[in-house]
Amino acid sequence: MARIYNLTYCLSAFILFSIFTITTYAGTTGKLVGKVTDKESGEPVVGANVIVEGTNFGAAADIDGYYYINSIPPGVYNVTVSSVGYQKTRITNVVIRIDLTTRLDVELTSTAVSIGEVVIEAKQPLITKDLTSSSAIVTAEQIKAMPVENINQVINLQAGVVNGHFRGGRANEVAYLIDGIPVNDAFNNSLSLDVENNSIRQMEAISGTFNAEYGQAMSGIVNIVTKDGTQKFEGTISVYGGNYFSNHSDIFPNIDKFNLGGPRDFQFTFGGPTKLINNLTFFLTGRYYKDNGYIFGKRVYNTWDNRPYFPNPSDPNFYINRNTGDGAYVSMNPAERKSFNGKLTYNLPNWKFSYSFFWDDNWNKYYNHAYRLTPDAIKNHYRVNTINALQIAYYPSHNTFATLKLSANLNKYWGYLYPDPYDPRYVDPNQGSPLSNYTFYSGGNETDRYNRYTLTYIAQFAIESQLSKEHKVKFGADVKLNKLFYHWMDIRNLTEGQLDNQGNPIFTLGYSDPGTKYNDIYSGDGFRKPYELAVYVQDKMEYDIMIINAGLRFDYFNPNADLPVDIRNPLNNPNFPGAYERKKAGIEYQVSPRLGVSFPISDKGAIHFSYGHFFQIPSFENLYSNSSYIIDQTTSLSSVVGNPELKAQKTIKYELGLQQVLFNDVSIDATVYYSDIRNLLGMEILQTYEGFLFGRFINRDYGNVKGLIITLDKRFSNFFSAKIDYTYQIAEGNASDPFEVYYNNTADPPVESNKKTVPLNWDQTHTLNLSLTIGNPTDWTIGLIFNYGSGAPYTVEPRYTLGLRFENNGRKPAVYNLDLKANKHFNILGYEFNTFILVYNLLDIKNEYGVYGSSGRAGIDLNTKFAGPVIGLNTIEEYVINPSFYSAPRRIAIGFNVGF
Fold first, then answer.
1. Does residue 670 lie in a domain region?
2. How remote is the C-alpha of 734 from its chain's centroid?
3. Does 87 lie in the same domain as 21?
4. What is the number of domains present in the chain?
5. Residue 41's domain spans which residues?
6. How confident is residue 113, by pLDDT bands cut at 50, 70 and 90?
7. Beta strands in 106-195 (DSSP E)
8. Taking a C-beta distance cutoff of 8 angstroms, is the pair 686, 696 a contact?
9. CATH no. for residue 114?
10. Per residue in 457-486, pLDDT tens?
11. Nearest to 387 by CA among 366, 358, 430, 367
């Protein structure tokens, strides 16, 4: 198998390199165009030189005075324009944005008018005429002013995004790219690592229909371009400390006193020339972050404690608690993170070489409400992600750009309470389990452990060319080779039910054998090795009356796996058909057309329309789950198997939008959209010939999303800027979770699956985001972010709806949040100092994200009236208050950064 895999890799790379020499990849650059004319006569200045300062990019004006410069990295530049007989003109603060065209028309003044060099500050237009679908571009300067610490916070501020869900899609329907290279974890299609804000040059979040160069996504694209080093040494150091501070001590005990012993953060950046080779620069970013968390348990019990003891079995009301804990508060959601990003860039007149390295090391624990009085019982989670990326770019002319990109993305996850699976501190899985409802564990510990490994090799070959003034064409292809492993196992008592000579239970530690759990992923040599191929063509046509983005994409996927010929005989029973017979899983391919059109109706307005088909292979954890097809031989439903023959999920998206300038520095953007979603991942319940039930993943779920987005944008002037995003959205489907059918059939009694669409779990009808920045960027600023969201759906318990069950027929309370960041700048001994205060959840609002089905509220469970007495050391009221149901309490941080 390994030899075949390596041969496939080599052949694929060779064929692609030989054939697809005219290919490209996801956009990481922008374009500068314009016309150079004589200021007095208005005639074109033929041959005028246009140079982007600090780069090797430039162009000469043609016979009509028109020029264009492709493939400029996003950012803010100064541009110089010169010609014989004219004063040199310098335009400052020219903004280049990912995938978009910046127009810069220049009027040159004759040398007969002696005024020296002309300096003009560029003014960014309020509307983007070549925007053919909804996207938001966030620059490094904007991120710096926001009260945000990570890229996920920035993403969730964009219109149409609710907790990582882009326009009503499932959370894993988003593609994340760093410098044009996909960085999704192939196991579950999530973002594999966090890029530090200090590394970001510019970020683009596309929530509308996206071009054919983007694939394996149905809801949205997040495209991040990182910084390069420059020809001068620059760096920053940032430090802060703080803590959580809340008066809600009934929910969050032990955080009612403010101190600086909570979250701590240290970051640095450093870049410049290496001095080893001319034009070889570097850029480094590092971060250390530690958070003791805000959810504390009380050590009433130690892990070796057990249930209360009944000295007289005939008297159930008299028992003796066996707790030995010291009563100390212990954090139950701490986290620690270390990261590093390094980038080497070597620039030549027609070549650019760069190597990037990303490393992300995380440790954390997740709160488990059942163990709140035994806080040492919860396991540790570890994650290490690395990306190595090599990029080679070739510029044969100012209108052609060719690239080769290679990357290796490695993701490792593992978790356990103790490193040694046979550590004697592990206790019987049933130890400390409660004897009554609304009762915490009285000892015991989490006993499961897991190990996950994903390695993805990516090769991209690229060229784009401005064939004429109107047409910029891209051809592209990429290949992905994946290698996956996942194993989960749980502790068990090897001598369960046996007694020693004194009649006491015998406990002998052991673990389930590999392959006996439904969520193992492995094959004969220990790994699954699927591979993918994509080819596309994209043409951007820019005319005076319209801009068209038209593209076509072809995706190919080979699961490289086999499965039983007869799925009803997974146990290979020789008495039934298909025993020991396997077949190769079929390949999957699809073609997706994309079209976007923008109609500039004036200098202050534009209308756009877009349409596209979008495909995505389901997550590999679902394709290969329980690849040995081990079925629990019981009459109850308890097993799940994967399906390597799953079809691609499909979304057809439509969008219509209007951009319009309302006043000086104020614009409005209104967009309506609709998505038709098919072939979503779901499940079917099957029965073996022996009568054993099991679940199997299939393409069965569907949904639709419709919405309206209105954005008002006031760019920075008169000491303030503001942006308001309002989203009205209805997201419906037959299931929110691929396991919905499985859960329904394990209920007692079983629940019938939905026959019609219902609100999805993340269906937030009204969403409002307000960003406000006030001040003088060279002196002081205050940044505020306010969020409002109407209540998400929940399912009311049938006993409170006359015995009838209607999924997601209730609404949780609305949620609000206000964050603040205040900065003050100083210049001390030539260094730029910035002190700041950062406050999350400034008003300390108790947003209720989790609720009880009986009441629709987080702290009220109407079912307590049916509860019996608690056999333990907690009250029912203490158990009902679950801190994980609420948003994080107020957090205050104070720090500084210095630039040099």
1. no
2. 24
3. yes
4. 2
5. 2-121
6. low
7. 106-108, 118-121, 135-139, 161-162, 165-166, 174-178, 181-182, 184-185, 190-191
8. yes
9. 2.60.40.1120
10. 999 998 899 888 889 999 999 999 999 998
11. 358
